[in-house]
Specification:
Shape: elongated
Helix content: 25-40%
Number of domains: 1
Largest sheet: 5 strands, mixed
Number of strands: 8
Order of helices and strands: EEEHEEEEHEHH
Strand content: 25-35%
Distance between the termini: 40 Å
Radius of gyration: 25 Å
Length: 223
C-alpha cells in the first residue's frame, strides 16, 4: 500500500533587473533519504471456527492437490505498507518570475501489521494450537526479514534518484506546480519499482513456509 505526500517549501530572492537574464540555479547538496520501519504488536484472534477460517482469502496456495479436502487451522493476515513524503524546496526570483526546485528530503515509513488467527477448534495450550502458532510466526518472520533486507536497497536507490533529479530550473514560476508534481511522481515511481520487487520476493518466501513438508510435519507432531 502506497501513500505519497508532498511538502513544498518556498523562499524568494530579489535580484537587480540588470542580471535577470543571467539567473542560474545554485548548487545544492543532495536531499536526504530517511527510512523508518516498525511493526505493530502481533494481534491474536482465537475466536473464529475452522469453518470460518476456511472462507478467508490468503496470499499463499495450498500445497495439496485440489482433490484433497483440507481445513485452515490457522493463518496470518497482515502486510507491509509503505508511506512516503517528499519535501520539495522552491527558490523564487520574483523579478524574472523564475524558480529553481530540488528535493530537500524524502521520508519513507514502512510498517508491518501482523495478526494471527487460530481456529477455536484447537484449544489454547494444546499441541495443535502451539504447532499452528509456531508455523504462523514463521510468516511474520518472513515479513520482518523482507523489510530488513530491502531497507538499505530502497535507501540506496532513492539516493541515486535524488541525485538524478538534481536542481530543476530555472523554470517559469507559473510552472512550479507542474515540475513539483513531476519530481514527486518520479520519486514515487522509483520507490514503487523497488517495493514491488520486495513484495514479489515476499510472496515467494511466504509460499516457501506453506509447503507440503511443513504441513505434514505439523500433522505428525500432533497425532
Amino acid at each position: 500500500m502506497f501513500k505519497v505526500f508532498t511538502v513544498i517549501l518556498a523562499f524568494y530572492v530579489f535580484v537587480p533587473s540588470i542580471v535577470m537574464a543571467a539567473i542560474t540555479c545554485p548548487s545544492k547538496p543532495a536531499g536526504k533519504i530517511n527510512i523508518v520501519w516498525g511493526s505493530d504488536n502481533i494481534a491474536y484472534d482465537f475466536t473464529k471456527s475452522q469453518a470460518q477460517l476456511d472462507r478467508v482469502d490468503v496470499d499463499t496456495d495450498s500445497p495439496y492437490d485440489r482433490s484433497v479436502k483440507t481445513h485452515v487451522g490457522g493463518l496470518m493476515k497482515g502486510g507491509i505498507s509503505v508511506n512516503s513524503q517528499v519535501q520539495v524546496m522552491t527558490l523564487t526570483y520574483p523579478r524574472s518570475r523564475q524558480i529553481c526546485q530540488w528535493i530537500d528530503r524524502m521520508d519513507v515509513n514502512i510498517n508491518i501489521d501482523p495478526k494471527i488467527y487460530i481456529a477455536r477448534d484447537h484449544k489454547q495450550g494444546s499441541c495443535k494450537h502451539k504447532a499452528i502458532l509456531n508455523h504462523e510466526m514463521k510468516h511474520i518472520f518472513v515479513d520482518r526479514e523482507a523489510v530488513k533486507k530491502y531497507m538499505p536497497i530502497i535507501k540506496r536507490q532513492l539516493e541515486i534518484s535524488v541525485r538524478k533529479v538534481g536542481i530543476v530550473g530555472p523554470k517559469q514560476d507559473r510552472d512550479a506546480d507542474k515540475y513539483q508534481k513531476k519530481i514527486t511522481e518520479y520519486m514515487d515511481k522509483q520507490l514503487r519499482s523497488i517495493t514491488e520487487k520486495m513484495y514479489a520476493e515476499r510472496k515467494v518466501k511466504q509460499q516457501g513456509v506453506d509447503t507440503l513438508e511443513e504441513y505434514e510435519r505439523i500433522s505428525r507432531q500432533c497425532r
